[in-house]
Design brief:
Elements lengths: L1 H20 L1
């Protein structure tokens, strides 16, 4: 679960960056 949480955190950062760029 810890690994999944870390992946989600990184994914969230990417999503936020994409949203800001879009």
């Amino acid at each position: 679960m810890k690994h999944r949480k870390e992946d989600i955190m990184e994914f969230d950062c990417i999503v936020i960056l994409t949203w800001e760029m879009g």
